[in-house]
Structure formats: C-alpha cells, structure tokens
Amino acid sequence: MPTWSFRFQLGQYVRTSLWILPVLGLAAGTLLGEAALALDDRVGIPTGWRYTATTATGVLTAIVGAMVALLGFVVTIGVLAVQQAIGTLSPRYMRLWYRNPLQKTVLSLFAGTFAFAFTLLRRIGPGTVPDLGVTLAGLAVAVSLVMLLVYLNRFVHDVRPVAIADRARRTGLRVLGVSVEAQGRCLLLDERADDPRRDAPAQVVRSEDGGAVQGLDVAGLVRAASRYDCVLAVAHRVGDFVPPGAVLLEVHGTPRTAVDPRRLSGLVALGAERTAEQDPAFALRVLADIAARALSSAVNDPTTAVQVLNHIEAFLHAVGRSELRGRHVLADRDGRPRAVVPGRNWEEYLELGVTEVREYGVGSLQVCRRLRALLDGLLTGVPDGRRPAVRRQLALLDDAVEREYPEGVRRTLARTGDRQGIGGGGSSPGDAPRPGGDV
Fold this sequence. Notes:
Blueprint: H1 4-16, H2 20-40, H3 53-88, H4 94-97, H5 101-121, H6 131-158, H7 161-185, E1 187-189, E2 203-206, E3 211-216, H8 218-228, E4 231-234, E5 241-242, E6 247-252, H9 261-265, E7 268-271, H10 280-294, H11 302-320, E8 327-331, E9 337-342, H12 346-361, H13 365-381, H14 387-404, H15 408-414
Parallel strand pairs: 4-9
Antiparallel strand pairs: 1-8, 2-6, 3-5, 3-7, 4-6, 8-9
Helix pairs in contact: 2-5, 2-6, 3-5, 3-6, 5-6, 7-10, 7-11, 10-11, 10-12, 11-12, 11-13, 12-13, 12-14, 13-14
C-alpha cells in the first residue's frame, strides 16, 4: 500500500505538472471525435451546414496547423514567465506559477481541438464527410480563441511584481486558514503543560535520502502513536531541510509493539524544495524575496519593494490575529498526548517579513518610511502579547536609520512613517517620531 508521503508527493506532482491535463485533453479530443463520427449519420444536418470533401479537408487541416502553432505560442509565453521569475522576481515563485489552472486549461483545450480535428480528418473520403464534426471543430476553434484572449489578458496583468505579490499573499493566507481549521479538528493540549517528551526517546526514525519537509500527516501520526501506545515527536518543522540520516521522528515511551521505521517515515513527506501546501511561511518567503530582489543594486526599484510591503503587511496582520503555537501537542480521543509537532510563532513570521527588507532597504528613504508605517500599523493591529516583538523590530529599524543617516534632517525624514514611502502627505497615524529621536 502506498505511504502517505508517496500519495502527497504524487498529488504535488499532479498539481504542478504542465503535461497531464494536455494529455488528457488529447485523449478527450480523440474520444469526442469518434463520438461525432458515430452521431453524424444519426443527426440531421441542415443543407447550409454541409461541406464538400475538399472544403472539410481544408478546414480541418487549417485547424490542426493552427492548434499546433497556438500550443507553441503558449509554451513560449510560459518560457518567458520562467525567465522573468528567475531573473527579476523569485525562483521560489515558480512553485506557485506551476499551479496556474488557466494555463493548463488553455493547453488542454488546444490539444483537445487538435486531436478532435485530426480524428475527423483521417475519416474524410469520397462521399464521406463528417459535417457535424466539422461544425463542432469550428466552434472549438472559436472557444479556443476566446480562451487565448483571456489567457493573454491574464498573463499581461499577472507578470507585474505587484500582481505576483498579491497572488503569493492570497495563497499564503489560504494555507494559513486551512492550517488553523485543521488545528480546530484536532484535540490540542496546552503547549505549556507537562511535556510528553520528558524522557529520552526510546527510538528515533531517521531520514533516508533527506530533503525539505513538505508536509506531515498529522492525523496519521496520532493514529500511529495510539496504535503503538507511545508519543511521536516530529523533529523538524514543515519547510526545514533534513539532511540524509538526520532524526526525523522521536519515539517516546515504551511502545507495545515493535515500531516500523519505514511506516513512520512515510508520514513525513520530503522533497527537493519547500512547497506552500502546509507552509504559510513559504508565501511570506516569496514576498520577502521579491522585495529583496527589487532592492538589489542590479534592479534598484524601491517602489516595487514598497508595493510588496503592502502585501507583507496584510499577511502579517492576518498572522498576528491568528492562533499560533510554538509546538502543537495533539491528543487522541481519550485526551492522552500522542504527537508533538513543532510550529511557527509570531516572532518568526515577523522577522521573516521585515528583516531582509530592512537590511537591504535602509539606504532608501522610501523603503524606510513605508517599513515604519508597516510596523506602526502592526503595533496597533495585533494583540497586546505580540506587540513587544513589533517594538523590537522598530528598535532595530531605528538603529539601522541611525547608522545610515548621520544628517539630522534626513534621519528625521527616514523615521517618519509614510504608507506611500515618499509622497504620502506626511506621517500616518501613530507615526510621530519616538522619544529619543531627532526633532
């Protein structure tokens, strides 16, 4: 029986594959072509919609050639998107771009229309013309052209960094919502309660090939721990890279039966790179990468960094109001702790979102002012218990500004929050200079 990790990775492959749906489109086009040929003699076609063999051959031949050309055109656009993502955005964004359903739909429609027309073409002969099929092929071309225009419109708008940042933010928030919902379906014990890992592990499960942790079967871990009557502790968070031979799981307690390491390791999916499937921080990583790339000397585009900060702020506000745990202690139906899964706390999300932008963008007044407005907004928008972390980030920003701007006037300007960076009409609420700053 395939392990959970195999099924998880298979699902990831299907979601990111660009060839599976087009191949299914080819098969569907062939089957529909055969069905059209079978119905042609049973369905009455008006005289005005009948074709000669020469006309039908010419039309279908043109459709076959056009579909091949359009397939090449869409593939070329895809190559351009890959080049732009790697060169000016973030290579990590490709994990999200591969999932674009519109591109797969367009490729499938073109491939299906090609197969449909080719199936009809090979049946044309003296006295045999699939009138119904030729008409349907013409309609399929019309639908294909409309979808091509929709795809081009979406592509032209989606290649902008701000559109990519918006998509990354929405993906991260969706994954975060799914994660919080999944926590609600599990019995969570207080993470400050007695640690079920009081004793040294009775056994450890090590990774064989290594890789990035892409996902965990949390429910499977609880079931396995209940079956063995032990506590399973995951040694790494989702997104961490696990080297070959490193500890993957710790078995605490005295299992009632021998533990199968291969079966337990199958509850943790490892892959070549991080994914956003169970890792909301991956989307934040993409946003920080795009901002850092915009602030590099090769690009030097602080306005793009400011636009990305808009989406980083929205993401951090949502995270700041969510229930986060440094570790999750999961219990079985009887309330006994069975699995310990490491989580990600507020400080880690906050540092990931602002640290690199601060370090690379401190030399830009525009970025400094927008980053201060972001932190000031978080200071009033997150619960009281999470505000000390925001104040620490504000202190780090003050120190960076102090080092970068020795002149009093520019330093004061850099320490004045502005949601547009420069040109926002002065400081936003809560952006007044702090005690000890220049006045």
